[in-house]
Every structure is written in C-alpha cells, then in structure tokens.
Amino acid sequence: MRHPREVRPVGVDYQVRTARITDVDRLVALFAPGLDPAGGPLVAADLLRQLIYLPQASVLVVERRREVIGGAVLALRPSVRAGGYIGTIDLLTVDQDADAVSVTNDLLEEIFRSARNKGCTVVEAALPIDPGERARWEDRGFTIGGSLMTRSVAARKAAARQVRI
C-alpha cells in the first residue's frame, strides 16, 4: 500500500523560442513600461510585427506553461571596426511575477547563440542603472564601455595553417 505524499515542483522549466506574430500583444504589454511614450504602444506593436520577419533582428520570448513571461529584441548592424555585425539588445523584459534572474539568464544565452549564428562579433546593451543588475551582466561576460556594456560572442579563430614550400 502506498502512502500519500505531497508533490512539489522541483524547478520551473522555461522555453526560450523565436517570437511569433501571435506573441506581439503580450510582448508589447511586457515592454510597455520601457517604451517611449511618444511612440505609443501601437507603433511598438507594428514594429515588433515587422522585426519578427526581418533577418536583421531576433525577437525572442520565454514561455512558462504556454504563457509568455519575458522577451528580448536583438537588432543587428554592420561594423567594420568590430569585424562583422554588432548585436544590440534593444529591449529585454521579464514579467514582474517571474524569476527575473533565471529568465534573464536564459534569454541572454539564446541572444548570444542567435548573435553568433547571425555573424555578430559583439553584443552590446545599455548600461543597467541598478548596481546589482550591472554586476550580474558583468558575471555574464559583459564589460563596461561608456554608456554601454559589451560582450564578445565571436567564435575562437582557428589557428592559421603554415604552408611550407
């Protein structure tokens, strides 16, 4: 005979994926506090819908139990100085009821993967105001440079072959 046991969740599983057009309204709701009031939410929704289909950007979401609890936008621009593309984390947001540290870490990992796949050598982001948040980003490999934090995502270059004649 089995005795009843209490069942507790061991951990929360998140799924990080590319955003779909159906995610736009939820993303706008999450991003709303970070958007410029002059642009308005309608402009943000229209722009996000476009960015989902453009190769110069990655729009990512984090889901927990089929609910979008976080999102990020990585925008790409070419840079001769960087030797490839620079990925800019334009927006990154997490639902206030979610575990911000875990969700942010999962989003950043997917941002770095996406940036490498798209030919980026560097990922940059606005410098966080909160010193604790800044320290967490530094732990993830970002360095402070002016008003931005940057992190290299370039693959290590293979050793050059020596040709003998």
Which key features would you list for this structure?
165 residues, alpha+beta, Aminopeptidase, 7-stranded mixed beta sheet, disordered C terminus
The count of domains is 1
The CATH architecture comes to: 3-Layer(aba) Sandwich
- The count of strands amounts to 7
Report the average pLDDT across residues: 81
The outline comes out as globular
The CATH superfamily is identified as Gcn5-related N-acetyltransferase (GNAT)
Helix content: 25-40%
Strand order, largest beta sheet? 1-2-3-4-5-7-6
CA-to-CA gap between the ends? 80 Å
Return residue spans where pLDDT drops below 50 for at least 5 consecutive residues. 157-165
How would you classify the helix and strand content by structural class? alpha+beta
CATH class: Alpha Beta
**Tally of individual helices:** 4
Following the backbone from N to C, one meets helices and strands in this order, namely EHHEEEHEHEE
For the CA atoms, what is the radius of gyration?
19 Å
Taking the sheet with the most strands, its summary is:
7 strands, mixed
Beta-strand percentage range: 25-35%
Kindly identify the CATH topology: Aminopeptidase
